[in-house]
Amino acid sequence: MRTSDNVEQVMPRYYAQRAAEYERVFDKPHRQPDIATLQAWLRKQFAGRRVLEVATGTGFWLPAATADATAWLGTDLNPEVLAVAQQKPLDFHKVRFQHADAYALAATVAPGGFDAAFAGLWFSHVPMSRRAAWLAQLHACLQPGARVVLMDNRYVAGDSTPITRHDDEGNGFQQRQLSDGSTHEVLKNFPTAAEFAALLGGRAFEFRELTYFWTLVYEV
Ligand SMILES: C[S@@+](CC[C@H](N)C(=O)[O-])C[C@H]1O[C@@H](n2cnc3c(N)ncnc32)[C@H](O)[C@@H]1O
Fold first, then answer.
1. Which residues cross the membrane (predicted)?
2. What is the spatial distance between Cα 204 and Cα 220, in angstroms, rounded to a whole number?
């Protein structure tokens, strides 16, 4: 299967099918200290900001991340996951959700009104060849000086799902199983600070590694 078909069809379908069981991944006891650290950190990152979120999913981070934000637009391709996010204890005076393709944000998201962007556990699913273009069209939706916050998994041997193959451009793939027994091959990358330095072309950024997650912050 071509990598583009995996990213455009297999991966979104996998997350739609996983919606009801997605948040089990956050139950792992050994990850709780990192998760608590990130929740407190996200709350601070978005205080007073108008945030565009890409690939919101079930909204696991939103009670913390939106707490002190001024406005929040969560977007995702899959209605199945946004339906779960709608059930979260959130202030729906300031939090809205919208279906949007993360690779075509300008088609659905009105630009200019955002002074921050957030994508959690998303960048790892962006093929290496699409990273620069994905960031460029995200930046185009934001105000000058906006803060961009990305956060994702680190690869931890013995804990992370193993990478079973790489494609020609270096993307890794995992075999994942859902509770209905179905298996799905999902593109998953583990970017480094050096890769972000190259991608961000001289822009200052902060890349931080926890035990199970990394975070990246910079300004547009
Ligand atoms: C690993 S989940 C991340 C969910 C959430 N941000 C989190 O941190 O828990 C990846 C999400 O990407 C969404 N997704 C997949 N392809 C997408 C696309 N082309 N555009 C927007 N969202 C997409 C899936 O529906 C899923 O909710």
1. none
2. 10
By most ligand atoms within 8 Å of CB, the mutation choice from 54, 81, 88 for ligand 1 is: 81
- Domain residue spans of the chain: 3-158+192-219
- Alpha carbon nearest to ligand 1 atom 26, residue: 57
In ligand 1, which atom is closest to the CA atom of 80? 25
Q: How many CA atoms lie within 13 A of 168 on its CB side?
A: 4
Expressed in angstroms and rounded, the spacing between residue 123 Cα and the centre of ligand 1 is 9
Q: Which CATH superfamily is domain 3-158+192-219 in?
A: Vaccinia Virus protein VP39 (3.40.50.150)
Cα 120 to averaged position of ligand 1 atoms, centre (Å): 8
What's the number of CA atoms in the CB half-sphere (13 Å) around residue 139? 12
pLDDT in tens, 74-125: 999 999 999 999 999 999 999 999 999 999 998 888 877 899 999 999 999 9
* DSSP codes, 71-112: EEEEEES-HHHHHHHTTSS--TTTEEEEE--TT-GGGTS-TT
Question: Which residues of the chain carry a pLDDT beneath 70?
Answer: none
Q: Measured between alpha carbons, how far is residue 150 from residues 1, 27, 86, 185, 191 in Å?
A: 28, 21, 22, 23, 11
Contact 53, 17 (CB under 8 A): no
